[in-house]
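Thread: Newbie trying to understand structure tokens

Hi all, I'm a second-year student working on a class project, and my supervisor (Dr. K.) asked me to get a predicted structure for one chain before our next meeting. I've only ever worked with sequences, so writing a 3D structure as a token string is new to me. If someone could post the tokens and maybe explain what I'm looking at, I'd be very grateful. Here's the chain:
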Amino acid sequence: MALTIVTDSTCDLPKAELDALNVVRVPLYVHFEGETRKDWLEIQPKEVMERMAQGAEPATTSQPTPEDFASVYREAVAAGSTDILVVTISSDLSGTYQSATLAANEVDAAVEVFDSKNASLGAAFMVRRAAAMRDAGKPVGEIVKALEDIRERSKLIFTVSTLEYLQKGGRIGRASALVGSLLNVKPLLTLDNGVVAAAGRARGAKKALKTLVETVQSTADAHSDGELVLSFLHIQDPEAADRLRAAVDEAGIKYRPAGVYEMGAVIGVHVGPGTYGAYGFVDPNPELGLAGLN
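---
Reply by user tm_fold:
Sure, no problem. This is what the structure looks like when written as tokens:
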């Protein structure tokens, strides 16, 4: 078996890391100021956030086409791959999963498309696990089972400055109850089975930070049979991610650090500036490895 792993740009791992993992990235598209550009390749979150803050019309996004995926699949087969595993952003947030699935009919290879039911680092950790297991010679079925375990034992928790961007983009899901919150109330959000959902609200930034730390602790407590692996994320605000990391450390939470990452332009369009948070999962099988973190 020769296995190629494919993911989309919303996993938010930098190209250098994906290259080191031997994982192929298919970009989503950002439509902004009359141009259509590829996420992370042709447009960066800094440009979008700065221009939107200056009053530019909000950007929109779209999934890769089936042909975008098919061309990657064909290249993999031409290079000798017999199996292709694709890890995508939640199918409830984007049509990317559908495009990847439709493209599977275009190649003579076994294509497994896995719906992460997640976004950003939630998908990135699945990619890391898949790469580690591929390199260890594990079959696709076993890899998919391991990804399902991560999906069930993970938590993405974040706060945004406003729900305006999620509301305009139609991605607000079960967080709609927070619309119209009082002034200075910070909404806390998560992904619940692939859909943006309310995780609470906090009055002021300090209380929001405290609540984020409490959620990280509850994630660890909910699955006490493994090692908590934790990453921090932000959009154009690394200081906010660092404050959260320091607060988690001060709380005495034990975890395996897995870096600080910026979310890309596609996700940034929908959550807006001032977004930061953490992604963690309790790993019951650390011996399976997380490529790039081992």
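A couple of things are worth pointing out once you decode it. The chain has two domains: 3-28+63-152, 154-285. Residues 177-182 have pLDDT under 50 and may be disordered. Feel free to ask follow-ups in this thread.
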